[in-house]
Amino acid sequence: MNTNTNFIQQLGSADFESWLLVQQAYRDYAFGEEILEAGFNTNSGYVYIALENGVQIASCFGQDVDYIVFDFETGEEYFLDSYDEAIEKLNNI
User: Fold this and answer.
1) How many domains are there within the chain?
2) Over the chain, what HEC string results?
3) Are 54 and 90 in contact (CB under 8 A)?
4) Residues 6 or more apart in contact with residue 92 via CB below 8 angstroms
């Protein structure tokens, strides 16, 4: 997993499209939330922005954005369709 800004140079065209989609989703739904890290997971193919509030905004291969919430107690990851759903899930964990 590469989490510094040099990861952008490693992106293929579909991965770069994912990076653009993730940035747009951050701008449209989470702007102002503190970003913990941004990167590219070479194992999963996800380009992501991890937020301080516990939501990850991610996309792989230029596909629609997923909002990912991780439950540290159970180890489960939840892939949600909207930022609001992700925040609601966090509040219910």
Assistant:
1) 1
2) CECCHHHHHHCCHHHHHHHHHHHHHHHHHHCCCCEEEEEECCCCCEEEEEECCCEEEEEECCCCCEEEEECCCCCCEEEECCHHHHHHHHHHC
3) yes
4) none
Is the confidence at residue 1, as pLDDT, over 70?
A: no
What is the mean predicted confidence (pLDDT) over 4-13? 82
**pTM for the model:** 0.91
Please name which of 77, 84, 83, 81 lies closest in space to residue 93, comparing C-alpha atoms: 77
Domain encompassing residue 9? 5-92
Q: What is the structure's pLDDT at 65?
A: 98
Task: Name the residue type at position 21.
Answer: L
- For the stretch 20-56, pLDDT in tens is 999 999 999 999 999 999 999 989 999 999 999 999 9
